[in-house]
Every structure is written in C-alpha cells, then in structure tokens.
Amino acid sequence: MGLFDVHAHLTDRRLAPNADALVERARAAGVTTIISNGLNPADNQATLDLAARYDIVRPALGLYPVDAVLPEMLAAGVEYPRETDEPPPSAEEAIEWLEDHLDQAFAIGEIGLDHYWVPEELWVRQESVFRRLVRLAIDADKAIIIHTRKAERRTLEVLEEEGATRVNWHCFSSKVKLAVRIAAAGHHLSIPANVRKAQNFQRMVERVPREKLLLETDCPYLGPVRGELNEPANVAGTADYVAEAWGCSRLAVDEQLASNFEALFGVRP
Ligand SMILES: [Zn+2]
Fold it and tell me: How confident is the model over 188-204, as pLDDT tens digits?
C-alpha cells in the first residue's frame, strides 16, 4: 500500500525535463501512484507518453475549463496568459481526440467550470462542453477529476444533474460548508501539499468525512515552500499533517487514504 498524488502536471515544461528524478524522489517518499492530468489534446498526448515511460504514472485525460473556450476567448480579445502562439483546438476537436483515446485514460480530468478567467458571455458554452465531458466519463465508467474556480455551486449542480458519482474535486477553494455538502453527495476532495499554510484546507481535513479525502499536489504549483517547485513526493508531508490533525498514526492515515483512492478509482494506489 502506498501514497498517491491524484493531481500532478508532470508534463509542465518546468517538471518534464526532470521527470526521472521526480519519479525517483516520489518512490523514495512512498508514492506508488501519480495521476498526471492533461489540459488539452497536445498535453493529453504528452501525458500518455509520460505514463508509458513510468509505471507509477497514470494518465488523466481532460480539457481544462479555460481551454474549453479558449478559441472564443482569444477571438474576443480576452487577456489570458499562454506559453504558445499556436491557435488552440476547438472544444469539438478536443472532445473528438478524447473519444479516440478513452481506453487509455485512467480518469477524465481535469475538466470543470472556471468563472475566474472565462468571461460571462462564454459560461453557457463552457457548461455545455463540460456536460459533454461528464457524460463521456460516465458512459466510459471513468472517474472524473474536477477543476473549478468561482463556479463551485454550479459545478456541483451540473454533476448532480448528470448523475456523476465518481468524482474528485481538486484544489477546492470555496467554503468548507460546501465541501461538506460535496462529500455528502458522494464525491471526494483532495488536499494539496500547501495545507500547513492554508487554513481552508486545514478546516477541510477537520470537517470533511475521512473516507472522502485524497491527496494531491497540483505540481508544479501550490508547493509547501514558497519559491520552490512542487512535486509528487510532497504528498508525504501532507499525510504527516493529516496524521497530526486526526490524532492517529501515519500508517492509519495511509490505509484510510488508500481505501478512499480505491473507492473512487477502482484499484489500489
Ligand atoms: Zn491541474
């Protein structure tokens, strides 16, 4: 039984060149599964390539909520930081790519709703893409990994309307009361590695039922040390924190979290 990171971005240009060392350090920290999350067709393909190289890396294939409407955002002149000048694929092209590669997906993600970057005129389109992706995951019997920002309530409504039950919410940043509601709906929520600096995640560890919590990093983002890139090995520090918060042994925490992972993904980490 091992630790796991349900939300990494190992294809990120700051991490990918050091993938060998990152995977080695993760193994040394007791990590047996890293779910690397794709953002768009090119990143999904890179995620599949990476998962083929490392046995502990599992590919989540998705369409980032901003990427879901990026061509429309750029056409409307909306400011959004990008690392490329390449024209982004349409949501239709991205969904077609996903349909063609579904059998290789460990999970579908990250997908969701983002009302922070996406202007209101595009929320309806963003939601219709999200619904198609949720149905795709349900039909293929895959777990869903959710990214949502400033749209948490609507995201829950959509998931409940579509009947999605195998869901993990990554980096949930709304009210703890809503996190408890989400857990009551049967969904999981993952705690990131910066938990010791983030009161909202500390309160989630206290108040969300233990069997609904998972661990993530969102690496290279959200590291426990300011100025340092985050990496999957850091989930061990989160597990230490959870053991302190729950007042039990690390072994008990690791066992509980491994069962939670299995309940969502259908396999042991
Ligand atoms: Zn992410």
Answer: 999 999 999 999 999 99
